[in-house]
């Protein structure tokens, strides 16, 4: 099982169950087509790389799990992007920020 380090911190009760890490960020190509039908690449913009991650938060009871989920929120919700490293690629890191929300119904058994 792998975990992660975010903002220099690891949580021993958090395991990464699944992550969908694309090879590169999506690209937006700006192409100009002339009236004669010729095309030319004007520029390329790199979009934000989204890495969906499913976390397993180990808890002894529902109350313990809810407390740990709040601790995880305090850990992952930051004002700025912070360094994120996954155990399976310790030499690569991302500057990451949490985006989206959590379905409270899922916290009973796991959180995404």
From TrEMBL:
It comes from the Bacteria. InterPro entries: Dit_BPSPP_N, Siphovirus-type_tail_N. Residues 42-109 form the Siphovirus-type tail component RIFT-related domain. This is Siphovirus-type tail component RIFT-related domain-containing protein. It comes from Siminovitchia terrae (Bacillus terrae).
